[in-house]
Design goal:
Layout: H1 2-17, H2 40-43, E1 48-54, H3 57-66, H4 68-74, H5 79-97, E2 115-123, E3 126-134, H6 139-155, E4 159-160, E5 170-174, E6 189-195, E7 198-202, H7 205-213, H8 227-239, E8 247-251, H9 253-263, H10 275-281, E9 289-298, E10 301-310, E11 352-357, H11 360-375, H12 380-390, H13 399-403, E12 407-417, E13 426-434, H14 437-449, E14 454-459, E15 462-467, H15 497-515, E16 520-524, E17 527-531, H16 534-542, H17 554-566, E18 573-578, H18 579-592, H19 601-610, E19 640-648, E20 651-659
Antiparallel strand pairs: 1-2, 1-8, 2-3, 3-7, 4-5, 5-6, 6-7, 8-9, 9-10, 10-20, 11-12, 11-18, 12-13, 13-17, 14-15, 15-16, 16-17, 18-19, 19-20
Helix pairs in contact: 1-5, 3-4
Amino acid sequence: MQGSACACWVRCGRVIVAAGLVWSVAAVWNAALAAGFQPSETVFPDTTRAWLSISDPRGLRERFDRSNYGQMVADPAMKPFIDGVKEQISKNGRQRLEKLGLTLEDFEGIPGGELAVAAIESQPGQLATVLIVDTTGHEAAAKALVEKITARLVERKSKVVPINGAPPQLTAYQIPDDLQDDRVPKNRRVAFALAPQALVVGDDALQVGQAFAVLGQGRKDSLASTAAFAAVAQPCQKALPAATDPVRWYVEPLAFAKAYQAANPPKEKRKGPDYVAILGRQGFDAVKGAGGVIAFAEGPHALRHHTMVFAPPLPGREPQAADCYDLAARMLRFPNVDGLAPPAWVPRDVTGWSALHWDMKAAFASAETLVDDVVGEKGVFDDVIASLKEDPDGPQIDVENDLVACLGSRVSMLTDSIEPIGTDSDRLVIAIEAADEAKVAATIAKVMDADSDMQKIDLAGHVAWELIDHSAMVPQLEIETPGGAVAHADDDRRHNPDDEAHRRRARLREKDEKLLPHSSVTVANGHLFIASHRDILERVLVTPGGVDALASAADSKAALAEIDALLPGGNSLRSFGREADTVRPAYEMLRQGSMPKSKSVFGQLLNGILGDGKPGTVREQRLDGSTLPDFEQVRRYFGTAAMGMQSRPDGWFISGMSLPPAPTDVATKPTTTAGR
């Protein structure tokens, strides 16, 4: 499990490098010297915003190695790529660690029991990272590591900071200013404490000291004592059999995001909406915590995971009622239903399918405050809805009554890809249930006819509309506002309100075109279909059901039957995917060095996250995939995966698994080479 081990060591490295505050604490240190330590969730404080624990690293590695994923990593054909990834991780780590005299390799062979890391909000807006390692059976190696760290820190001219009342086991170092991140305050320190069977390392001496002091007995105000952690941990642990050596995790989403944002300010000031603040204002802080367990080689499953999202109703509100949350968070209504299965029109050989049962009428009614908050101007949502109804140049539709009221409550999505694999191979279809198909069709026709960029076509005997491909047209000189994102009212711009509204709609449209540049739309089979390309929509429209449908494929039936066993009863979400077909487009793009040029939704999202944010620029691929073997050499390691979600009175419970590869009855994928 070299890849997973490296990931753990990267976390360790980041812990050592980070900075801290001055520490002073009075505690009973002798308790820390007891054999072993209490479970880390009872040692870390209730101000822990994120936590990850591996209770038995050795057991986890053995299970991973037994899984088909571990077998793939161990395949000699993958060795050049795996070695390259390890070298890149090590190199990136050394760039941060060498200033402190550390390397990632220093941490090999230290864990003898639980390895846990926590992000603790030590003060409002400040995050401390603390790592605890059970070194049972590896005490000599742990001691040697501490001595090596000490020597290297001294060599780098870091100075020991005396701490009044601290035991000899704890050492704090002042890191020279020229070795620190210029985005965070100076005068930062790192600290470590070595007990006979435990090592505590962190970037905040106070938190390191407090954790060290309670290793033996835990603390009353611990992470485990919080209602959110208990509500998340209990159902997840109950769902997983004992002795599975899982990875456990927990996060308070908004609290962590706010603290991380404050502790890691961007180097350059960014314009536009602050989505973390917006989600907090819009009632999404109702999500108090999320966490779960992940296990490998558990029973028939190559991988199995359970997640609980804890979002209890507000005080005095009924669970799952329309008003159980406030403002935009009211759109989080996902009723459970029976029979959430692939419809007959989903082709048998697609890569994946998912469906969500969603109260879309409640979502629409709750969207006003969110849209206004994102734009930064009250009334924008109502203005847009009004313009669609009243603008003589627009479609003149009543969105709520002519469209939303006529929709059902099921949203389906299917994914696929075509041969040969290239930057535009991925295919996507979103299908929204239409309760009144005729009225939805009439409304969509009015919208499409009013849009000069959509052309009417006949698709398998159905009236459809396709976005005109402007890429082949004669280029025109355009001057656009830098950023290209949704304008926010706080931006310093002088504008005419009507002109700005027009510009805002144009930018939103441009963003949609970039996401689905070849989109096609139609209403058929009781659904509103929005597809990334014409060819995938046509395949959906001509699928007759029966043996040609995904629901009849043996692999999908087997995987979804596993979800029936894990989540008996009604579900609000179901999904199924073929891992090899899901992974292959990204695999080939990575192998070709073309991932940054991918036109898939995933590729564009990845570019948005990893890119520099400058319009027209293509990011550099960070991972060298040139040493990857031909995909057919590793296809045999991929199986199928499925997932389900149940809405509960206090949130949502998610279970998922993957089955190892086995012979299937899936037909050979089409070799369509059409570009749309």
